[in-house]
Amino acid sequence: MSNARIIGTGGYLPKRIMSNKELEEIVDTSDEWIRERSGIKRRRIAADDEKTSDMALAAANNALAAAAIDVTDIDLIVVATTTADKVFPSTACIVQRRLGLEKIPAFDINAACSGFIYALDVANRFIRTGGATTVLVIGAEIYSRILDWTDRTTCVLFGDGAGAVILQATDEEGIISTHIHSDGKHEELLHVPAGVSSGYADVTVEAAYIQMKGNEVFRKAVSTLGAIAKETLLENGFEQNDLDWLVPHQANRRIISAAAKKLGLPMERVIVTVDEHANTSSASIPLALDVAVRDGRIQRGDLLLFEAFGAGFTWGSALVRY
Ligand code: UT7
Q1: Which residues are catalytic, by number?
Q2: Boundaries of domain holding 35
Q3: Is the domain of 39 the same as that of 98?
Q4: Mean pLDDT by 10 residues, the chain (322 residues)
């Protein structure tokens, strides 16, 4: 059985930067509150004519350039998104066509903020079982389109972006293990109620946007992420000190710090982009990874832990030798 190694990373952020100050003009909030409670300073917002597939394609092209492979080497595309261009076809199929690829399987995964970990898990299994050799895994989201811009409890927290990795079969070490979980009991703590089978044609405005009980999600995220990080290290015979970098989902700096503390990791060994990107859901981990690979913090051979928690609830982790 082969291992799956990350051979290239890529990211894409829309040009428009929205500061906390700008949000003060829209809702009853303050730069101080947003920074203190979430760690967010600014976020990117997609242009009106920009779609999730545009951002996914840009991130994919960056990852392809970094991997220095031919696009035709890709034999599977998995896109994690909850903000697809269309109900169908999948965003992955749109990306496939725009990359000029034919026939290879391409599909989307919806696991909300844990989407990238789920996509990585599936791609890893394809490679380990010989079903694919070179996989394009993307997380891409336009949350600005599912935000209620009159709701200060949600609209200040999210942003748009896309991140991608290319995984390739190898005899060397790569993805060591992936762990995914879900618990549908908490559906209504974090959701967008509208959907195709639940009144899609006459959806109310509120139902089309994110609804979240932030503090309940916060508490659950902190306890769950602490547990899964320890479970992941223990299962693989590693100790907390063996980790070079924690690359967590970027929802809130306080959630990230709590997870790092439980692992005994100083914040210097945690990749944080929530200040610049806000929460980009399934795009947040590949974007953070790409930032830290490009600025030289993450080096070949480093041991990385990815972890995420999101709507569903879903959560997961991946232990990766980069
Ligand atoms: O990606 C995975 C899913 N998402 C998350 O993981 C997000 C999880 N939750 C969080 O990050 C935090 O719970 C928030 C950042 C959303 C909120 O922080 P908090 O410390 O849990 O605050 P809170 O919800 O308990 O609200 C505290 C106060 C409330 O006022 P009162 O009732 O104490 O008077 C809110 O109305 O802050 C108020 N508030 C705001 N004030 C200014 C809520 N949003 C805002 C705002 N600006 N934007």
Answers
A1: 113, 249, 279
A2: 3-172
A3: yes
A4: 95 98 98 98 98 98 98 98 98 98 98 98 98 98 97 98 98 97 97 88 84 97 94 95 97 97 95 98 98 98 98 98 98
Binding site membership of 215 for ligand 1 (Cβ less than 6 Å): yes
- At 204 the pLDDT is 77
CB of 89 within 6 A of ligand 1: the answer is no
pLDDT at 202: 77
Residues ≥6 apart with Cβ < 8 Å to 119: 78, 79, 80, 109, 111, 137, 138, 139, 282
Q: Are residues 166 and 182 both part of a single domain?
A: no
Q: Where are the beta strands (DSSP E) in 171-284?
A: 175-182, 190-191, 211-212, 245-248
CA of 113 to the centre of ligand 1 (A): 18
Determine the atom of ligand 1 nearest the C-alpha atom of 113: 1
Token pair recorded at residue 155: 């609209």
24 and 149 assigned to the same domain? yes
Q: What is the DSSP letter of 290?
A: H
What integer pLDDT is reported at residue 129 of this predicted model?
97
